[in-house]
Amino acid sequence: MxxxxxNHDESGCPILSPCxxxxxxxxxxxxxxxxxxxxxxxxxxxxIRMKLLIALLLSAPMLFAADFAGIWVSSxxxxxxxxxxxxxxxxxxxxxxxxKSERPWGNFTISESKIDGSRFxxxxxxDDGYNISMEGALEGDKLRFTVHExxxxxxxxxxxxxxxxPFTVKDVIPPPAIKDLAPNGLAKTPPMxxxxxxxxxxxxxxxxxxxxxxxxxxxGMRDAGYIYLNIDDTWEGxxxxxxxxxxxxxxxxxxxxxxxxxxKGLKFGIYSSPxxxxxxxxxxxxxxxxxxxxxYAEWGVDYLKxxxxxxxxxxxxxxxxxxxxxxxxxxxxxxxxxxxxLCQYGHENVWAWGDKVGGNLWRTTGDxxxxxxxxxxxxxxxxxxxxxxxxxxxxxxxxxxxxNGGMTTDEYRTHMSLWAIFAAPLLAGNDVRGxxxxxxxxxxxxxxxxxxxxxxxxxGHLAQTAGDTQYYARPLNNGDMALVVVNRANASSTVKxxxxxxxxxxxxxxxxxxxxxxxxxxxxxxxxVPAHGSLMFRMKAPQ
Length: 543
Ligand code: GLA
What we know:
Blueprint: E1 3-6, E2 22-23, E3 31-34, H1 43-64, E4 70-77, E5 83-93, E6 96-103, E7 106-116, E8 119-125, E9 131-139, E10 142-148, E11 155-162, E12 192-195, H2 197-200, H3 206-218, H4 221-224, E13 228-230, E14 236-239, E15 245-247, H5 254-263, E16 267-272, H6 289-299, E17 303-307, H7 311-314, H8 320-333, E18 339-343, E19 361-363, H9 372-379, E20 394-396, H10 409-421, E21 426-428, H11 437-443, H12 446-452, E22 461-466, E23 469-475, E24 481-487, E25 493-495, E26 509-512, E27 517-520, E28 527-529, E29 534-539
């Protein structure tokens, strides 16, 4: 058995051996290591070495962190010919990452990060506080990661390094000087029709639009007033060498499609963005506003929804009015009557200037979805801005979800009743090719539609609240008044309507717009309102 003397470290433990040895000198002296006589006076060495090992393990990622810094671009060609892009711009300091995750419509700023060798994790959020997280790894020269977004299935992205950021726009065109555009004379009552987004999103194509046109006619929707057939995002293709926008392969011939829609007695709507990209990442109208307006007019477009999206990369919110005015002007220059729908989620008090840029309607909130909760969140913001709506210029609390399956029939009745009391545009977002009787009875309720389309165009508002019961009122052109009673509770309730408090005399003639029955106002009456459901009445003006 041999033994040897080795150096020791500051704590007095031998550097070379994991304590196979024997101490032969003082704590500061030499150590003689032997083999085979473990453990010998080694307790404190083990503790120290464990600590060293743990420290080493903890510092390993720092020592071996891969190089993530740079611009990472993922490009995925879609079947319609469009290329979906996502970008990660990363700065790295040790095992920390900063930078942004970019989508065509805007950015997420990285707020937290973690690197473990070639693996990484990130958390990022928009200015509005929308959070996402990602985790993945550097695999050769590719960055492969999974993205987690609220209300989305996680998805995997593969990105490669790029020299430049495809979403960066240089030399941004300054917005025009502000002026007031005269009204275009359109949308005297809130626009009614159908829009592809809520149900079909990116899965809309020529064939489906034609089928919707047929179904709007055969279902009676057109004759009930739903005349605009609007294609939302994802129709866009590339621009040609002259900058003219073309459709992607889902829409082989937009002019022919518009002609078909017109042949059915309907009007034809389309969608774009003042930014370089739409919200779904397709080609926007930035720097091509006049050219696009001309193309739309040539196709026979009657309605444009213009969605802020990626304009946020180029312009401040305070530029919105001028940016929207630019397209308003371009539409005017075509001399074709085109309803102008502003979609910028109610930012910058759009209701105060939307009509001055030629807007006929403006979204007042972020997107609706097919839930009672989201629908009522939107409802709760509408009364305060009621006075800004009127013939030719409407508050738009977003498109209808009726018939899409996420709410109960009672909840959908509430949706329709409140949209009508708010003089909201009625843009159905369901599959009109196969509507249930319940859906038809809601969307095709002519008495409720008549309230929505009342020619005076005064938007109703929340007039009174009693516990979970809310009363929304709207004055109508012939002196009548519309009333919606909403039960916000999760259980059905019995209510006695306080007619007197709402200045409705006893004995006033009242029409129940859901039951299609006449009654007279009477304090003795009580009504059952289902959970999240509503009643809707039209009170006749005293003769
Ligand atoms: C935004 C709009 C929606 C829809 C999508 C399309 O989210 O608010 O209504 O147009 O863009 O990408």
